[in-house]
Hints:
Blueprint: E1 3-7, H1 13-24, E2 30-34, E3 45-51, H2 59-66, E4 72-79, H3 85-96, E5 104-112, H4 117-122, H5 130-146, H6 152-169
Parallel strand pairs: 1-2, 1-3, 3-4, 4-5
Bound molecules: flavin mononucleotide.
Flavin mononucleotide (FMN) binds at residues 9-14, 51-55, 78-81, 113, 115.
Amino acid sequence: MDYxxxxxxxxxxxxxxxxxxFRALPxxxxxxxxxxxxxxxxxxxxxxxxxxxxxxxxxxxxxxxxELHGKKVALFGTCGMGSDDAxxxxxxxxxxxxxxxxxxxxxxxxxxxxxxxxxxxxxxxxMEDPVQESWxxxxxxxxxxxxxxPNDEDLANAxxxxxxxxxxxxx
Length: 171
Ligand SMILES: Cc1cc2nc3c(=O)[nH]c(=O)nc-3n(C[C@H](O)[C@H](O)[C@H](O)COP(=O)(O)O)c2cc1C
């Protein structure tokens, strides 16, 4: 098997990216599985997808990454926060540490993903403190923006990420 796409997705955003990445991979020697179904099927290059849970990935993703040896590995994921390079970088750092040293890391692609409506409710009550109020408004704005993600541009960026990862693996 050339390529394996394995993803963890609670509400479907990361699965959407996984499907796009799977489609963009060339040839027939490829497979895609939900991490819950993954039973160690082997490949040369793994695209491992996660949804961000409290600033990092879930334990199932950590377990899976830790068991990959001698593989090429690219990461992708979705999170509620809109493009914030420093935040995305911190997520990448927290997740990539689980890739064993004998693997070759090919990069991470992250984009925003819509959140459950209950999250919006948390930001709907105005606050007295002006600093907190400004933060609340920002969070509300971010929530509403997230409703449209992953969008077509995110999917195009995911396809570009695949191209870059494939180029990097040959270098
Ligand atoms: C319990 C929980 C924790 C979350 N923690 C974060 C977080 O720390 N940072 C963030 O940007 N988004 C966070 N989110 C938002 C999700 O990462 C986001 O909606 C993601 O796209 C969900 O992906 P999925 O549809 O593949 O499950 C959280 C969502 C939930 C439900």
